[in-house]
Amino acid sequence: MRNCKNQKGFTLIEIITVIAIIAILAAVVAPRFVGRTEDARISAAKADISAIETALDAYEADNGAYPATEQGFEALSEIPNIPPIPANWKGPYLKKKAPKDPWGNPYVFVSPGINNPGSYDIYSLGKDGKEGGIGPDADITNWTQE
Length: 146
Hints:
The chain is mainly alpha-helical. The protein has one helix at about 10-65; strands at about 110, 120-125, 140. It has a three-stranded antiparallel sheet with strand order 1-2-3, with helices on one face. The protein is elongated.
């Protein structure tokens, strides 16, 4: 028979204390990371819009005009079959189809733009998926919002 006094291990009190400390740390640290997730999504949307703008500008340099709203971002991946058909398409200007925004919605493209009449408008509907919004629900756009 073994002598139980010589065995090493943790007592129930020690285990409960460690679990309590981990729970307190999680309660303090977790809310800080939750806010960072939304900031990261906003930054990702801005980066996506910037990459799409670069592709649209290359399209315009080759063809003398931006794709029409009806042609959409697809005109950056394959030659459009909806008029106006570009005469000098040298794409694809995007390696993949235009990405969805970080919230899973398609980016909105309007050409010619309402806010940028000389070019185009690109925007994400943001966290709430609805046009407009204030604060964290605001749209992420390629123009300055007031």
